[in-house]
Amino acid sequence: MRRRYIVTIITALVIAGYLSFDEKQDNQQIAVEAIKSEPDYLITGLSIESYTENGTLSQQIDADKATHYPHNNSIDFEQPKVILRQGNSPQWGITSKTGQLIGDETLQLNGNIQIVPLQDSVGIFSLSTEALTIDLLKHIADTDAQVIIESNSTKLKAIGMNMNLNSQLTVFKSQVRGIHDPNVK
Question: What is the pLDDT of residues 3-13, one digit of tens each?
């Protein structure tokens, strides 16, 4: 009878030890994952300039605050202001509440996004939406959110848009509605 108690106690201790060891392994794994997803730097008042291979300034991003995450090579921005250029001339000015630069090629913007052309030849208008993804290599802007384009004489609303920022060719995805007053100058 005494042997059974001893064997039972030893078995219980072995199981408790194993479970404790396994729990420590899980906690260590969780801690390692948490550390990997931590930012490696925070910057206030950031200005990033990107240049083409021949040394021409192609884009500029200014932000009130930026946080870099090394595990996925992304930067989160607060209040980003973006200027996209073609050659030496600025083409587009873009602002939003937040943004995320993924790698060096994708910029995702969210919240009160405003896009304005910076060339006189294009005309004066503004484009607004709540979510926008920009392929910085191809200069393609895309959204599935509502888009509103306004000028002195025109107001256009649509759901979704794909825009080539170089050629200004824009395709609206659905529910396009517009008002144009030709008498307004």
Answer: 666 767 777 66
Instruction: Output the six-digit token pair for 155.
Output: 């107001």
Residue 69 to residue 100: CA distance in whole angstroms: 11
- Distance in angstroms between the alpha carbons of the first and the last residue of the chain: 103
Round to whole Å and give the CA distance between 79 and 14.
56
- Using alpha carbons only, what angle is made at residue 96 by residues 94 and 98, rounded to the nearest 5 degrees? 130
Among 20-34, 84-98, 129-143, 154-168, the range scoring the smallest mean pLDDT is 20-34
Q: Which two tokens stand for residue 83?
A: 């200027």
- Per residue, the 3-state secondary structure of 14-47, as one string, reads HHHHHHHHHHHHHHHHHHHHHHHCCCCEEEEEEE
Place of tokens 């930026």: 66
Type of residue found at 167: S
Which residue in the block uniquely carries the two structure tokens 């600025």?
Answer: 90
CA distances from 26 to 29, 34, 75 (A): 5, 12, 29
**Site of tokens 């405003």:** 114
For the residues 90-107, what does the mean pLDDT come to?
92
Does residue 98 register a pLDDT over 80? yes
- Three-state DSSP class for residue 42: strand
